[in-house]
Design a protein that fits this description.
Blueprint lengths: L27 E14 L2 E9 L2 E3 L4 E10 L2 E10 L2 E15 L2 E8 L2 E12 L2 E10 L2 E12 L8 E2 L8
Parallel strand pairs: 6-11
Antiparallel strand pairs: 1-2, 1-4, 1-10, 3-4, 4-5, 5-6, 6-7, 7-8, 8-9, 9-10
């Protein structure tokens, strides 16, 4: 299963309210509902797919529900693992973001490297559609994602993924 975390300029949206009272700002917590991707090498498609969430994760024997949050210049990605006995939310990544127009750029810092990704978005009511494209010497990767705005409480108390120890 492909994990969504493709999310990753200077004007920060502080938010506005639509006529129906919904929050239409970029800032907040978003529950991913679907994503599609295409990976090309030398002009040929080598991988493509789509996922609707929550999705089954057979390795974990649970459902996976991705989220992302943009708040106070900090981008966070989360994954809620839903088991029969209950659920747990993991924090997978944290970086900074900047917004310019309908584009936001996420920067993750890993030891001595930076990973910078740019996303174009459109918000309609409490829904967002995001697209990205990455071209390098190996080929092109493009993705689209749809999400719905939810309460910050859906990811409150998340456990950092690298903190959680798995025992075999």
């Amino acid at each position: 299963m492909s994990n969504y975390y493709p999310i990753s300029n200077i004007i920060i949206w502080t938010g506005c309210t639509s006529k129906n009272g919904g929050d239409t700002s970029l800032e907040g917590t978003w529950r991913v509902t679907e994503q599609c991707w295409v990976d090309e090498e030398d002009g040929e498609i080598v991988d493509e797919g789509s996922e609707t969430y929550p999705a089954e994760d057979e390795e974990e024997d649970c459902l996976i529900q991705p989220y992302f949050q943009l708040k106070n210049n900090v981008f966070k990605s989360f994954s809620k693992h839903i088991y029969e006995e209950g659920s747990i939310v993991f924090l997978f990544g944290e970086g900074t973001y900047e917004v310019e127009g309908n584009t936001f750029t996420v920067t993750f810092e890993f030891e001595e490297e930076e990973d910078i990704s740019e996303y174009t978005y459109v918000i309609s009511g409490n829904k967002i559609s995001i697209s990205s494209e990455d071209v390098d010497e190996y080929g092109k990767y493009s993705a689209t994602m749809k999400a719905v705005k939810v309460s910050d409480s859906e990811v409150a108390g998340a456990i950092p993924w690298d903190f959680f120890e798995f025992e075999e």
